[in-house]
Amino acid sequence: MSQPPAKAPRTAPQTFHVKSFGCQMNVYDGERMAEMLSARGLTPAAEGLDADLVVLNTCHIRERAVDKVYSDIGRLRREDGTRPMIAVAGCVAQAEGAEISRRASSVDIVVGPQAYHRLPGLIDDALAGRDAVDTDMPVHSKFDALPGRARRASPSAFLTVQEGCDKFCTYCVVPYTRGAEVSRPWAAILDEARALVDAGAREITLLGQNVNAWTGEDEAGRPQGFDGLIRALDRLPDLARIRYTTSHPNDMTQGLIDAHAEVASLMPFLHLPVQSGSDRVLKAMNRSHSRESYLRIVERVRAARPDIALSGDFIVGFPGETEAEFEETLALVRATRYAQAYSFKYSARPGTPAADMPGQIAPEVMDERLQRLQAAINADQHAFNEATVGKRMQILLERRGRHPGQLIGKSPWLQSVHIETPDARIGDMVEVDIVSAGPNSLAGVVAAARAA
Ligand code: 5AD
Ligand code: SF4
Questions:
Q1: CA 315 from centre of chain
Q2: Which is the closest atom of ligand 2 to the Cα of 168?
């Protein structure tokens, strides 16, 4: 028997909980929403059911991500029959809009990724019983309306510099949910980076759906590309590490490749999605690069920075993908030797061109291809990790591990490194000797401590 609907809250929320799904930009957006709510006097709650307001910051990229949101909404019900106020933010909010509250009646607020600075007003609307759906893509950037960054940042912080996508890969919802490519202004980015460093960040990861498509003008009005932005950030004192994600092969300029050779704080890591190793599939995906042109970019990047760790994204089972075409993807993986990579089963997204293409692939075929692809990627990842054993490297300590005295940090190549160290603190950059490697992480010993 189904339960009666949980009782909706009637008073202004005092506490909040933000849960972000999906990509790093959602994590960033979630932090900004949390900062905005804190600036309004709300306090964070550790668990959704303890909070007066829960923000589900959603992802629409694959079907399973969407299903997770609805199951989370269903769970937000307390034993006494009440529930928190529920706001659905992020890309599902953008794609489904008011449809969400029809499907899940306990949703009070729907707010898209370009409108979340208006969340406080939407809370008032919801309390007053007014329609609280905002999926506008306003002309004025949300960034101008958000409060400054919080006074404490984690050692490794995210900073959105570019949003949206004009590439329209035929499988992808991002151009519809995040809108057209927009670059944030130079000064706004540098100001935010300075604030993050002042708040304790030692590493900044620049975020964008096509981060390397960033363009702008510097303070003197000179046109600058993404590499110019990186070089300016490199000049910030106390910023030890710069990373960026996600980049598109077609926006890998020579300037950016050169920056990998020349900018010391730019970490030797490149996430460069290719999606498929088959030219026919790449064309059907509207990727606008070929297998060969991708491999040539990889070659040039490796020539500039021989130790660079490469990462990628792959989709198996794109409509019409044959066994032979899938094997071209496997061969590309073997040729490239990724340090890590993400692979996904194709998921038909409503409204995208590929969803209506003939030759949709059976789930069991996709499962089987995914397993083979992941086995190939895992083998390379393990080999990459093994090759670091015996090396000494700088590790930025980011968080506590499970055991007392254990800290977890990141290598320059984005590997997680577990260290037993009672003396060091989170935020320290320490010299570490790598003593062992697993498939997903390394273990190390602080070099100074070992010498002592
Ligand atoms: N199905 C499966 N994977 C997808 N991605 C994007 N859209 C889809 C889809 N419809 C993957 C791509 C992209 C990553 C962020 O998600 O590999 O690079
Ligand atoms: Fe999606 Fe392609 Fe744009 Fe990446 S480049 S966000 S995969 S449309």
A1: 17
A2: 8
Judged by its nearest atom, the ligand closest to the C-alpha of residue 165 is 2
Distances from the Cα of 72 to the Cαs of 32, 90, 106, 123, in angstroms? Answer: 21, 15, 11, 20
The answer as to whether 362 is a domain residue is yes
The answer on 226 and 78 residing in a single domain is no
* Residue 117 shares a structural domain with residue 229: no
* Cα–ligand 2 centroid distance for 243 (angstroms): 19
**Domain extent for 231:** 148-386
Which residue, 114, 96, 116, 112, is CA-closest to 104?
Answer: 96
Instruction: Tell me which residue has tokens 């008073």.
Output: 11
Is the preceding omega at residue 246 within 30 degrees of 0, hence cis?
A: yes
Residues 369, 285: one domain?
Answer: yes
Mean pLDDT of the chain: 94
Residue 66 Cβ < 6 Å to ligand 1: no
Identify the bridge partners of residue 396 per DSSP, sorted by sequence position. 410, 429
Average pLDDT over residues 269-284: 98
Residue-wise pLDDT for 110-140, tens only, equals: 999 999 999 999 999 999 999 899 999 887 8
For residue 421, the domain's CATH number is: 2.40.50.140
Residue 180 near ligand 2, beta carbon < 6 Å: no
CA-based nearest residue to 297, from 247, 233, 228, 343: 247
Decide whether any atom of ligand 1 lies within 6 Å of the 313 Cβ. yes
Which of these three, 345, 368, 386, is where a domain ends?
A: 386
451 confidence band (pLDDT: 50, 70, 90)? very low
Measure the CA–CA gap between 108 and 16, rounded to whole angstroms: 14
Measured from the CA of 165, which atom of ligand 2 is nearest? 3
| Nearest atom in ligand 1 to 342's CA | 17
Clarify whether residues 155 and 288 are in a common domain.
yes
How large is the average pLDDT for residues 57-79?
Answer: 91
What is the CATH classification number for the domain harbouring 182?
3.80.30.20
What pLDDT digit, counting tens, does each position of 324-356 carry? 999 999 999 999 999 999 999 999 999 999 999
How many domains, the chain?
3
Statement to judge: residues 44 and 164 lie in one domain: no
In whole angstroms, what is the distance from residue 443 CA to residue 361 CA?
Answer: 41
Is the distance from the beta carbon of residue 174 to the nearest atom of ligand 1 less than 6 Å?
no
Cβ 167 under 6 angstroms from ligand 2: yes
Ligand 1 atom having least distance to the Cα of 352:
10
